[in-house]
Amino acid sequence: MSSDNTIAIVDYNMGNLRSVEKAFQKIGASVVITNDHKIIENADKIVLPGVGAFREGMENLKQLGLIELLNKEVIQNRKIFLGICLGMQLLGKKSYEIEETPGLNWVEGDVEKFKIKNLKVPHVGWNNIFFTKKSSLFQNIPDQIDFYFVHSYYFESGTEYTTSLTNYGVDFASSVNKDNIYGCQFHPEKSQRFGLEILRNFMNLTNDN
Amino acid sequence: MLKHRLIPCVLLKDWQLVKSIQFDSFRTIGHPTTTVRVYNARNIDELIVLDIDASLQGEEINTEIISDMANECFMPLTIGGGINSIDAIYKVLDAGADKISINSIAIENQEFIREAANIFGSQCIICSIDAKKNGNQYRVYNKKKGVLDVDPLTLAKEYESKGAGEILLTSVNNEGTQNGYDLELLRLFKEKLQIPIIINGGMGRPDHGVDAIKNGADALAAAYIFHFSQYTPAQIKEILNQANIPVRMDLFEMS
């Protein structure tokens, strides 16, 4: 099914992908930033990073013909997938950012805005994650380590796919996992040693995990 | 719990990293990539680099050095200095920066903030404000234009409404003094903005950071203390932690 060991970082014009590329290169992964359907089809794994607005993210995926392609590769062909920040939020059923917008609907959960009195939005900086479930991405990572976050919306917690929680006024899902699909709200590529460890764990995942 | 960030804020000049003293003279810190490698090994929270050749001499921002630094930097990297177009932001981000800091262009044209935030997201846009005490009031200072008849807090609120993601607030009077942050300036800003305030200028000892957080700063930027004092980042954080300020503790030193 997958023909090489490349990790495809999906370029859909939603923010800076260079940091993600550099972090994967640092750990020795073969990685390419692309929106070329052929390259994504041939890649071993897919990463969807991104910062910015949910609706624009979905719109851009659609315009590049990537929604069908991703559904085929990730849902049908069960290619191992990681969504980072906005890329994790897009996994959800819908978001209330600006207006109600449907997401990829791969992982149960809605995306909501932080509305907490006296707390600054975006939630920016280092915050700790509490493991709620075993995840292959957390190998060699101690519980309650800080990771770097920057976001104004969050993925609701309480679904069976939540693998860690983080608190910022509310408990939200800071990572999710369903079958071959992984998501993290924080930025592993900007979270120093343990962030790189998460990417390494992702790099080493196989479909047998 | 969200932690207060401790951020080295250094200047890029003649292919070296330097720190400035009251916006006037400079002390050399070291080679950019070597320095970033050390910051990374010391598990620093975040890094701000301002290219002063670009901002003051009008030279093209040095994307080659930025790219070299970004290769070693697995923490958020903010680049500023001389950024005055959307194209320049694309270039800097493509070199590996995560956020950009703007100053002069924001003073000249606030719509630029809106335009940049719409394209890159607010989280990417730090607006830098230099404030100077003039008599008994604070005024915005610009390196090219000098003291402007503009109130820093008013300007910060305008920046916020245009889509700025964070404010980097530097006290011109305290910068390079090691006498502590400008707490009077901070108190004017306390609880007035929805976006985070990174205070800069004057940190000479860890307890200066404690004072700044207690007076409303969300994050601490500094240069001197990291390079010319006996304190390591871990020791600074230990002192902040003892003062019940949540910080990201360096419990797992990088080998």
What percent of residues of chain B are in strands? 25-35%
Q: Which strand order do you get reading across the main beta sheet of chain B? A: 1-4-5-6-7-10-11-12
Query: Could you state the order of secondary-structure elements of chain A as H and E?
Result: EHEHEHHEHEEEEEEEEEEH
| CATH homologous superfamily assignment of chain B | Aldolase class I
Mean pLDDT across the residues of chain B is 93
Nearest-integer average pLDDT of chain A: 93
Number of strands of chain A: 14
Q: What is the subunit organization of this protein?
A: heterodimer
Q: How many distinct folded domains of chain B?
A: 1
Structural class of chain A comes to: alpha/beta
Contiguous low-pLDDT stretches of chain A (5 residues minimum) are: none
Q: State the CATH architecture of chain A.
A: 3-Layer(aba) Sandwich
Structure annotation, total helices of chain B: 11
The largest β sheet of chain B comes out as: 8 strands, parallel, barrel
Write up what this structure looks like.
- The complex is a heterodimer of chains A (209) and B (255).
- Chain A is of the alpha/beta class and 209 residues long.
- Chain A has one domain: Rossmann fold.
- Chain A is 25% helix and 30% strand.
- Chain A is built from 6 helices and 14 strands.
- In chain A, strands 2-1-3-4-14-13-12-9 form an 8-stranded mixed β-sheet. Chain A has a 4-stranded mixed β-sheet with strand order 6-5-7-11, covered by helices on one side. Chain A has a two-stranded antiparallel sheet with strand order 8-10.
- The radius of gyration of chain A is 16 Å and the shape is globular.
- The two termini of chain A are 17 Å apart.
- By secondary structure, chain B is an alpha/beta fold.
- Chain B has a single domain (5-242), classed as TIM Barrel.
- Chain B has an 8-stranded parallel barrel, surrounded by 5 helices.
- Chain B is 35% helix and 26% strand.
- Chain B is globular, with a radius of gyration of 17 Å.
- Chain B has helices at residues 32-41, 52-57, 63-70, 86-94, 104-108, 111-120, 152-162, 183-189, 206-214, 224-227, 233-242; strands spanning 5-13, 16-21, 25-30, 47-51, 77-80, 99-102, 125-134, 137-142, 146-147, 166-171, 197-200, 219-222.
- The longest helix of chain B is centred in the middle third of the chain and has 11 residues, at 152-162.
- The A-B interface holds A 15-16, 18-19, 22-23, 26, 51-53, 120-128, 142, 145-146, 148, 150-151, 167-168, 187, 189-196 and B 1-5, 40, 43, 45-46, 70-71, 74-77, 93-98, 120-124, 165-166, 193-196, 218-219, 248, 252, 254.
